[in-house]
């Protein structure tokens, strides 16, 4: 629970950071009138919206299981990430519209240097906060925080492109380039939004853990199942920070229930030491149910 409170605080802080960055980037747009800087500011509006969605998702996912949700509420984080992806796509379409009209009727910049300075400061803040979210989001296995961090990373990358484009417009005097840069920003945002939704759908569809984590799980079971014959039908799925693991454990027919239970307790304790949010279900079977060569051997 303390970890979940820490994650919730990070998500709440993201809202404050998002509002600060939005204010700086919107000021940069107002000072210059640049369509490209407008696109960057509009993405920051989405940053605030997604930060709010991430905060609500983290709070809801920490709610303990209840009668209607016996497996917990962790999947709400994936729903949050999907919503973020949709919002990103909407922002990209709005930017494309603005870029089109800007291309049809380009205008020269006003006060480009102060505007660029404001945008660069905002981008540096975003980059620093992105690093924090990505680090702790992965450490605490929070899809909502990781999704928020990836969105901020896309914002930082596009901001670099925007600044470069605005500088080129100032140096060359070719104002249509401003709208072209904005359109490129929109296309990049569309790609990030699609990638985010694709990853989140995998979580909603009960995607299994990675091969690396699966190998660790098999190793722990094999090491701790001394006295058993084998483990088979190993299945995994993830929901936010929680990893669900279930398998069948084959034991000698003469083994007592108490002995089999002790083996299960030992395996569960070892798995939870490796991954604290693991939920383990073990079905004990007699030796005639063994699938030699098809299961996890006991070391």
From TrEMBL:
SUPFAM superfamilies given in the database record: Cation efflux protein cytoplasmic domain-like, Cation efflux protein transmembrane domain-like
Entry's Gene Ontology molecular function annotations: cadmium ion transmembrane transporter activity; ferrous iron transmembrane transporter activity; zinc efflux antiporter activity
Keywords, comma-separated and alphabetical: Cell membrane, Membrane, Transmembrane, Transmembrane helix, Transport
GO cellular component, one term: plasma membrane
Signal peptide residues on this chain, from the entry's feature table: none
Domain (Cation efflux protein transmembrane) ranges: 12-205
Cation efflux protein cytoplasmic domain ranges (all copies): 210-287
InterPro entries noted in UniProt: Cation_efflux (IPR002524), Cation_efflux_CTD (IPR027470), Cation_efflux_CTD_sf (IPR036837), Cation_efflux_TM (IPR058533), Cation_efflux_TMD_sf (IPR027469), CDF_Transporter (IPR050291)
TM region(s), chain numbering: 37-58, 78-96, 116-136, 156-174, 180-197
Membrane topology, record value: Multi-pass membrane protein
Cellular localization per UniProt: Cell membrane
Biological-process GO terms, alphabetical: intracellular zinc ion homeostasis
Presence of keyword Transferase: no
Chief location: membrane
PANTHER family for this protein: MITOCHONDRIAL METAL TRANSPORTER 1-RELATED (PTHR43840:SF15)
UniProt family annotation: Belongs to the cation diffusion facilitator (CDF) transporter (TC 2.A.4) family.
Protein name: Protein p34
Gene source species: Methyloceanibacter caenitepidi
